[in-house]
Amino acid sequence: MLGKFLENFFHKNVLGKWEKQGVGYDNEVDIRYIVAYLDSFETKGVVYYPSSGLDVNDIHYVNEKKIPAIKVGMPNVFIHSDALDYYTNNYRCQLRFPVYEWIEGFEWSDGGNKRIYVEHYNRNGLDTDFWYIYFKCFCNEIILKSFLKSSIKVDLIFCPVDGITSGMGAGDLCENVPTLFYPLLSKNLGIKYIITDQSSDNLSGLSEYFSQWISNFNKLEKKFKITKTDVENISSSTNEIYLNYSNFNLFSWGTGFFIKELI
Amino acid sequence: MQKDFIEKYNNLPVYNRNIYRRNYYSDYNPRFWTIDSKYVLKNITGSIQQLDFFWQAILFSFLSKSIYRCSPENYQYCLDYFWMRHDVDIRFIYRNKLQFFLDFEFLKIDKLSNLNTVCYSYENLNKYVSWLLDIVDDLNKKCCITDLPSRILSGEKDNLFMEEFSTEVNSLSNRFLKQFLKALKDVR
Questions:
Q1: ipTM of the complex, rounded to two decimals
Q2: Which residues pair with residue A77 across a beta bridge?
Q3: Is residue A56 within 8 Å of residue A25, measured between CB atoms?
Q4: pLDDT single digits (tens) A4-52
Q5: Whole-model pTM?
Q6: Of A66, A92, A124, the CB nearest to B25
Q7: Are the Cβ atoms of A249 and B25 closer than 8 angstroms?
Q8: How far apart are CA A258 and CA A134, in angstroms?
Q9: Exposed, middle or buried: residue A10 (CB in 10 Å: 0-12, 13-18, 19+)?
């Protein structure tokens, strides 16, 4: 599934011509090889971090040992995206020795700002590995569409600093779907948990934006036809746990957050 | 951990050097302290009890190195824990090995003064072991995902870990090692 998910981005030249770089960034590698390679990988938990920037705190902290309330073991696929151009690939500085060991990586560019990084790491001391896939200069909504197309299951959404509710920071670049709406994707994507700084109760004060957001949401998938009532019911159909600074203080930004349990 | 220890620890003299050169992507520069017998001597003014701080500092540095080597799965969490709770970056470590400081610099101090740091240290070994063990225990309870005492004990099979200590059985570093390992086994 993971390979199929990635393959979506190369279908029919949807995203233009892609320049490829391969194993260890030395050799060109056929996308078909990567697709087959990733499809052979046994996923044990997929985490998606929309508007991640270069933050990798999900890789550090989103696991059952650190957050017992989430029953996802030790996820081994982390998918990130951000519409803004963070000019560097400095996430690599945060995935560093001795905690992590880089195994291999692949990278594609459209010749412009768009980049797809696919990196394979080992967690030292635990003898487990994981894939980190970063879509640089991609709207989150593109990634959501690709999830829906590939039938990949996303166990957890990590959006801990989603203060910009309406746009995820991308302004007019994307047809924005706020993460507060993501519980509506739980059945389609298999989302079990959302870790966020915003309670679903916040929706009640944002009704003036609903019509635009609903319209954007329904564009993610042809069969989607959500209504205002569906949005208003999000809060009552979501079990939320709030963890504050004093009982979980290891996120680097040091604030409290909600865990939304969806299934 | 005492606030005054943290403040003094953060203000120890340092120079920058990138010890993580093996990691191509690393971009940060941990600091190394350049403390020697002259520095200690100059800063122990009036009371031998002030030696306790230097013991604690070298042990704190040793703990950071031990987690780095023996328990990489907990290293990020320990870094964050100290940074968030105590404003300490535990990547800062001593330039020299623990044994060099304990077994050589202390002897030098005693030659240069009438402080008897070696005797004082032997008498207070239990106190230092307890101090370090309390930190290990705190980390284990508050932030680690595997049993930290067990992981540090695995250092017995790690040459780099064992090289921190002299093999001379009566040396200060070796005596400390034995007591520390025993204490770790007891709490495990």
A1: 0.87
A2: A46, A131
A3: no
A4: 899 888 875 555 566 666 666 666 777 888 889 999 999 999 999 998 9
A5: 0.90
A6: A92
A7: no
A8: 24
A9: middle
